[in-house]
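thought: fold this chain, then report.
action: predict
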Amino acid sequence: MKTLTNIDKVAYLFLIVIFGLGVYFANTDLTYFDEVYTVEDGFVENGSAIFLLSASLLLLFRFFKLFKHKDFLWKVGILAMAVVFFFGAGEEISWGQRIFNMESSQYFIENNAQGETNLHNMVVGETKINKLIFSQLLTVVLVIYLIITPFLYRKLDWVKNLANKFAVPIVQWHHTIAFLIGTGLLLFITSTRKWEIYEFAFSVIFLLIFINPFNKEIYKAKQ
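observation:
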């Protein structure tokens, strides 16, 4: 495992505080945890949006900085990730709906579980999109990306070449460990609002991955 950078240390200390307070409030004052600590548009949710947006902007910065030095597939890969994280940031705050005091259209009022202008709370029939895609599918993707892919990248040249070609950052093992610890800490929080803290951890750790991945040579002009 590579040595933690100062940014890693500060970020992990920050997450320890966030999770520590979350576990404390969830077990001593559940109302405060639900209605203040993890409330909609509160510190935790807005923090997630900020870190997701930061990750997107970092990727866009590298896209334009290295545009002349990289091939088409690298550009496609990094731009696609930037779009995904920008989308995630927008969804987290319902695209600024409450910030700008905008009313939802009738379609979202009728088909969104919270009556908000976002996709992750949409309901199709009896199925919540958030549960199907943003929980179950995302869990599978995270397991593959955080646990399986790092092993394959280190063992198989074709996986390494494919990841580098599409500018896919490979996690360092401390990133994986941080996710696993965060997942374990959720067991100490019974509130359904605990996922707000998990999303916060997701946004912070992915920003760390993009800042300093195992294959950081993908962000250099010449490999």
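thought: worth noting. Residues 6-214 form one domain.
final: tokens above.
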